[in-house]
């Protein structure tokens, strides 16, 4: 027994004619007739007396039709409830975000969401890409803001914007006075990576055309875990960094931050949710809030090359060792 079969039964009771009921249900008359026959055979009861004109319900058929109407009403109520829940802009939402984006985007995002959805309580967690994917899949968090594509079959990605990478040079760098940065061979062994940020590191290696991270000079005996630390190391002339554009929005001295020539390397930033996530309206509002708070330069069209990470041998090998 299906909801569709019950709809056919109610339509037949209202129209008392197979052709008219089929038209109302937007189905062929033979199709409707077959579904009614299948239902009657399943329950072992004749719902309509086909020998009478117009079509007339049997005694038991009348009770079945009444119950069918009740079930269809309750089905409509469930549908309305689900729609209302999807459009509800209140409650708690657990939001995860990669640490290379969080310090720069979250303050802007929270400020915007206070106006758009004041009744939503955001619980925000910073984590690396692998942890965020696991947390979304298991339900530990509802939404992740991270670089995509993930390549994960059980996750749904909603792209928000493309964030260019920029080079950060120290004042003695040979290209310190140039308008754009072009990767130099002597910079490759100076490239600074972040500890445990395998997705981010994989993108940097791709930009620099480095296959094996072992070719990068190990200069330090401690873990570098933040972009702000990378910046300070560059200022101290201890390396070379490629960092996301949002990480320089609060910088006053920007002369040593160099954009790449077109096509600019970018990372795609998306909301990532499970395939069962239902709060679509809230996700739309969040996406608009992020877009609205971005610097104007990131909203303009430009030639770019999207840098992936999920198919990087470095990323695959690094994660497999965890």
UniProtKB/TrEMBL annotation:
Family: Belongs to the LysR transcriptional regulatory family.
Transmembrane segments: none
Keywords: Activator, DNA-binding, Transcription, Transcription regulation
Record-annotated HTH lysR-type domain positions: 1-58
Pfam families for this protein: HTH_1, LysR_substrate
PROSITE patterns: HTH_LYSR
Matching Gene3D superfamilies: Periplasmic binding protein-like II, Winged helix-like DNA-binding domain superfamily/Winged helix DNA-binding domain
Organism per entry: Pedobacter kyungheensis
GO cellular component: protein-DNA complex
Keyword Nucleus carried by entry: no
InterPro entries registered for this protein in UniProt: LysR_HTH_N, LysR_subst-bd, WH-like_DNA-bd_sf, WH_DNA-bd_sf
Molecular function terms from GO: DNA binding; DNA-binding transcription factor activity
Name of protein: LysR family transcriptional regulator
């Amino acid at each position: 027994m299906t909801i569709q079969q019950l709809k056919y039964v109610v339509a037949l009771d209202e129209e008392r004619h197979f052709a008219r009921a089929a038209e109302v249900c937007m189905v062929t008359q033979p199709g409707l007739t077959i579904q009614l026959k299948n239902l009657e055979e399943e329950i072992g009861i004749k719902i309509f007396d086909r020998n009478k004109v117009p079509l007339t319900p049997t005694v038991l058929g009348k009770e079945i039709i009444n119950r069918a109407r009740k079930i269809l009403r309750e089905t409509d109520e469930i549908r309305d409830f689900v729609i209302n829940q999807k459009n509800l802009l209140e409650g708690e939402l657990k939001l995860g975000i990669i640490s290379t984006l969080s310090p720069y985007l979250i303050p802007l995002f929270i400020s915007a969401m206070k106006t758009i959805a004041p009744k939503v309580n955001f619980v925000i967690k910073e984590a690396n890409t692998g942890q965020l994917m696991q947390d979304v899949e298991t339900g530990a968090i509802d939404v992740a803001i991270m670089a995509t594509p993930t390549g994960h079959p059980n996750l749904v990605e909603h792209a928000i914007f493309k964030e260019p990478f920029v080079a950060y040079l120290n004042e003695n760098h040979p290209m310190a006075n140039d308008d754009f940065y072009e990767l130099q061979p002597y910079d490759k062994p100076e490239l600074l990576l972040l500890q445990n940020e395998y997705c981010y590191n994989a993108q940097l290696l791709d930009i620099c055309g480095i296959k094996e991270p072992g070719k990068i000079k190990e200069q330090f005996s401690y873990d570098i875990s933040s972009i702000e630390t990378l910046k300070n190391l560059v200022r101290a002339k201890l390396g070379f960094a490629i960092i996301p554009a949002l990480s320089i929005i609060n910088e006053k001295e920007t002369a040593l931050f160099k954009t790449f020539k077109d096509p600019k390397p970018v990372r795609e930033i998306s909301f990532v949710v499970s395939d069962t996530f239902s709060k679509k309206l809230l996700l739309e509002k969040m996406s608009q809030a992020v877009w609205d708070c971005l610097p104007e330069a990131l909203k303009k069209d430009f030639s770019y090359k999207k840098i992936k990470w999920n198919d990087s041998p470095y990323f695959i090998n690094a994660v497999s060792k965890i």
